Amino acid sequence: MARKTIKVDYLARVEGEGALTVTIRDDRVTHAELRIFEPPRFFEAFLRGRAFSEAVDITSRICGICPVAYQMSSVHAMEDALGVKVAKPIRDLRRLLYCGEWIESHALHIYMLHAPDFLGYQGAIEMARDHAEIVKRGLDLKKTGNALMSLIGGREIHPINVRVGGFYKTPLKRELAVLNDSLKRARDQALETVRWVSGFDFPDCQRDYELVALSHPDEYPLNEGRIVSNRGLNIGASEYDAHFQEIHVAHSNALQSRTREGNAYLVGPLARFSLNFQRLTPLAQDAAKEAGLGPSCSNPYRSIVVRAVEVLYACDEALRIIAGYEEPDRPFEPAEPRAGVGFAATEAPRGLLYHRYRLDDDGTILEAQIVPPTSQNQATIEEDLTVFINDWIDLPDEALKHRCEQTVRNYDPCISCATHFLDLRVERG
Amino acid sequence: MTDKQSGILIVGIGNPDRGDDAAGRAAVARLKALGPKNLRVIESDGEATGLLARFSEADEVILIDAVLSGAAPGTVGRFDVNEAPLPTGRFGISTHGFGLAEAIELARTLGCLPRRCVVYAIEGRSFTLGERLSPEVETAVEGVIESILNTISLTAG
Question: What is the dihedral of CA B99, B14, A95, A215, to 10 degrees?
């Protein structure tokens, strides 16, 4: 019996480690295992015994690329536990901060990590030799996202200005207006990005995913909304644990999420887009249509186009928020400690990020649960590999390995497998 | 990339919560206290495009990063990257593995590598979450600071 094992053994990395093994028998993929060694589990333990006010800064250290997502899910969950309601300007600023993170995170993935897969380059450096102006556009676009994060978050990496109830310091209207010019430029660049990536060659791969994302009646979801699916799910964050479970799998120290029925599901740009197309701005909707996307998308290889549409939306939305911003009367609402449980889900660039905290009466954290998007997508990534890779089974080993990596990168997983610098091996049995 | 300033920019790279990975950031924090008042230092998580954006800010950039290459912990390598790319080693141990070595090569390709660009690489022992610098790396950090302060005074003189 012909048996082949494709292994991608990742170098140990500080911010996250992962490895991939795909087993092929008699020209069929029989098994795919994505192994993730990720930090949220340790953080859940660190958080116990800390004050409710500390979670925002502790959890923002989980990820260098999406600290805002962790900050947002944690403050919303704490406010849920403590019964704090924030004023509109604070809500707007949080949304604006999140737009900054979407722009910088998506731009990084599109230009530096994912586009080289489609254009046949080993990585962004090689791509830059032939496409310097395009790479510079990506860097400039990302820089605008970073500028937005620096202004509202207090600094570019691991923002420090967010607190339960609001912010330590809120910007003046004229301070925000400074960003208008670069955001307008970024919006043009984002539109060019949508057109650029929509011209890539995409494999014709579709799957009938269970798509899960937030949904809000008035806006494309970032900070708020019900958790909905294309299978009729419609729940609040407090019901998350009743519908989803985290399972220990032997090959990964990340917990793997599934529905309570045991099914894999998909979070992230594809799910958000497909469940919320009507809430995109007209500009973003038109760009999506022009790029060949319908009101839904179930081809994960096209996720790069959906990310580009979301960058366009984030630029558009950031400009709208800045135009309508009124300085708040005070930067934050006071929060009084009390015993309780708080829940929140927000839309990290990679998908739904769920936090739950149980507090005692002086606000000490007794229990913390953090479910990041990558562990929710892990089972779906493994299924994608099992299904799609069969179409390319006759490719030479190197090309096949590349397809496997590309398939993983469709999800922009928050582990080092997003890199192009992997130690790759093929073992034949 | 138009806001070019002259002078030296010193960048300390790493994750402050990951043991010896914090070496570069510890070094620049101390340089800030010890060096001349107008010394420009920044801390970075090592993400390549963020680093690249800062390269345009100075004629000369000195970068300090932790590395795992198999050498004895505390070993310091000094690399003039205008001369040659960084040797293969685990530089830029950073989020998504797109770090210092990639930032330098991307800058070289795009023609925006600073006129002078030097990397100090400090071999780490442990990169465990929540740990302090190991003693060998503490000593190495002091050595790097001294070397940089000497360079700066020579340049200024």
Answer: 70
Q: What is the per-residue pLDDT across A91-108, written as a single tens digit (0 to 9) for each?
A: 999 999 999 999 999 999
Instruction: Determine contact, residues A354/A240, Cβ cutoff 8 Å.
Output: yes
Q: Which residue shows structure tokens 């999140």? A: A98
Check: complex ipTM more than 0.90: no
pLDDT tens, A296-325? 999 999 999 999 999 999 999 999 999 999
Q: Is residue A50 part of a domain?
A: yes
Q: Give the pLDDT score at B88.
A: 63
List the domain range (segments joined by +) for residue B46: 8-156
pTM attached to this predicted model: 0.90
Helices (H) and strands (E) in chain A, counts: 15, 14
* Tally of structural domains, chain B: 1
Q: How far apart are the C-alpha atoms of A133 and A302, rounded to whole Å?
A: 23
B26 part of a folded domain: yes
Q: Which residue has the tokens 């997502």?
A: A69
pLDDT at B55: 92
Q: Is the pLDDT of residue A9 over 60?
A: no
Let me know if residue A18 belongs to a domain.
Answer: no
Are B53 and A421 an interchain contact pair (Cβ–Cβ within 8 Å)? no
User: Which pLDDT does position B91 carry in this prediction?
Assistant: 57
Instruction: Residue B111: list chain A partners with CB under 8 A.
Output: 132
Check CB contact under 8 Å for B50 and A13: no
pLDDT in tens, A277-297: 999 999 999 999 999 998 999
Domain with residue B40: its CATH number is 3.40.50.1450
Q: Is residue B124 a part of any domain in this protein?
A: yes
The domain in which residue A96 lies consists of: 40-417
Bridge partners (DSSP) listed for residue A35: A19
Which of B99, B119, B89, B93 is closest to B48 using CA atoms? B99
How many domains are contained in chain A? 1
Q: Do B110 and A135 touch (CB under 8 A)?
A: yes
Residue spans of alpha helices (H) in B2-134? 23-34, 48-55, 100-110
- Return the residue of B nearest to A418 by Cα: B96
Minimum-distance CB partner of A125 among B44, B96, B102: B102
CATH code, domain with A269: 1.10.645.10
Decide: B20 and B66 in contact? Cβ < 8 Å.
yes
The answer to the question of residue B24 being in a domain is yes
Residue of B nearest to A125 (CA): B106
Query: For residue A429, is it within any domain?
Result: no
- Report how far residue A92's alpha carbon sits from residue A311's, in angstroms, rounded to the nearest whole number: 18
The partner residue sitting opposite B95, judged by closest CB among A15, A125, A156, is A15
| Residue B1 within any structural domain of the chain | no
Q: Does residue A22 sit within a domain?
A: no
